[in-house]
Amino acid sequence: MACTTRILVFVTLMLASTVVLGKLHDISECGSNLLSVLEACSQFIRKDGPKVSPSDKCCEVLKKVDIPCLCKNFPPEIEGKISMEKAVYVAQTCGCSVPKGTKCGSYTVPPAAHL
C-alpha cells in the first residue's frame, strides 16, 4: 500500500511539473522569459503597496514582450504572488499595448483602463 501511495505522489508531482514547465515554455514564446520580467519589474507589481511608475529597466524588458501573449499564458502559481492589475498598469505606463477586455491571468482589463 505504501508503495502505491508513493507512486501516486510521484506521478502527481511529475504531472504538475510538466504543466508548470509547459506554461513557462509558452511564456518564452511571448518575446521574453518570465524570469527577466519578474527580475526587472517585481517591485512594481507586488500585491502590497501603492501603484508606482516602473523603472526604465522594467520598461525596457516589457517592451520586448508580447503582453497579450504573456497575459494569456501567465501561470496561476505566480499570479498568486503579484497584482495583475498593477502588472497591467506598469505595462501601460511603459507604453505597451494592453487592449481593453484583455484577460491577464484572472484580471480583465476594464473598458477604460485607469492609469
TrEMBL record:
PANTHER family: BIFUNCTIONAL INHIBITOR/LIPID-TRANSFER PROTEIN/SEED STORAGE 2S ALBUMIN SUPERFAMILY PROTEIN (PTHR33286), OS01G0800600 PROTEIN (PTHR33286:SF1). This is Uncharacterized protein LOC113874576. It comes from Abrus precatorius (Indian licorice). The lineage of its organism: Eukaryota, Viridiplantae, Streptophyta, Embryophyta, Tracheophyta. Residues 1-22 form the signal peptide. It holds the Pfam family LTP_2. Keywords: Signal. CDD domains: nsLTP_like (cd04660). Residues 14-104 form the Bifunctional inhibitor/plant lipid transfer protein/seed storage helical domain.
